[in-house]
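Annual report, structural modelling task.

Input specification for the adenosine-5'-triphosphate complex:
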Amino acid sequence: MATLEIDRLNKTYGTVRALRDMSFTVGAGEIFGFVGSNGAGKTTTMRIALGVLAPDSGEVRWDGRPLDLAMRRRIGYMPEERGLYPRMKVGDQLVYLARLHGLSPAAARTAMEHWTQVLGIDSRRGDDVLKLSLGNQQRVQLAAALVHDPDILVLDEPFSGLDPVAVDVMSGVLRDRAAAGVPVVFSSHQLDLVERLCDRVGIVKAGEMVEVGGIEELRATQRPQWVVDAPQAPPGWAAEVPGVHVVRYDGARTFLEVDPAHEGAEQAVLRAALATGPVREFTPQRPSLTELFRHVVSSDDAAADAASGGAGSTGDDPTAPPTRQEVSA
Ligand SMILES: Nc1ncnc2c1ncn2[C@@H]1O[C@H](COP(=O)(O)OP(=O)(O)OP(=O)(O)O)[C@@H](O)[C@H]1O
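The model returned the following structure:
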């Protein structure tokens, strides 16, 4: 197995610049989580990787070579707008899709039986897809992506709408495929899940990759956070401590960022807390992926604001992709 390389993809739809030099790699056996606000460019990137959409510029490579049609047939793809035939039986449909990817009739049937069993839908093989619940349709959709034993998995929001058991089944399958050497890339808005499952994460904003790396690596780019539980501390107690930035107050707990360049700031904030009364907790906190995501997205907004002098504006560039609010409005 080899590495999937997404190299400087650009894509414009009319006046909307959907991708700007989008680049990342997914190595053999790696699970890569692709996260970003609505309209950030995830689906566009995945469609280009699959070859159903052409980029304006840039390239997708597999094993160092541009992806050709034969290699694209080796991708297992789960589209966002699920692509099943509603009035076809689950088993027949999976056999048909496997045959389309070149499997013999016998191999296609074996693969269908295997994946319906692994995904817990073997008892539904004889049912039309439309008779299944949405979660079970999604399991069929994953089976459809896997039935030809792909060398690469590209999955657009595979976890949306799944119950916790189905999430576990799906996670297990992705881990298993990765363990077999398949590069797995999937998009999701469920950041806790991405954090649990992925080796590396890419945070995309307005068509650009703004952060990419392992979760620990990304955490290390953030200022250290502390939580202080001081029940008698009055509001604003930490505001004047040098080198300390109060992120938020939550009842008796205060969440703080400490400037690493400011030597002794942690001890100063502890002293300030003790001066107010008892301190029940004083703990360093590792930011979750959700916090990292908020930080990356909002700090970019702040930078854009500062550059444009506007409030929440994306600047004067008329080709800039819409903000989340514009997209969801
Ligand atoms: N066929 C299209 N025609 C015009 N604009 C499009 C088209 N497809 C996508 N866009 C625009 O391109 C941008 C990127 O969209 P894309 O669907 O790739 O985002 P996404 O990250 O997958 O979003 P979501 O999380 O909501 O699925 C958005 O501004 C979207 O409105």
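The longest strand covers residues 16-26.
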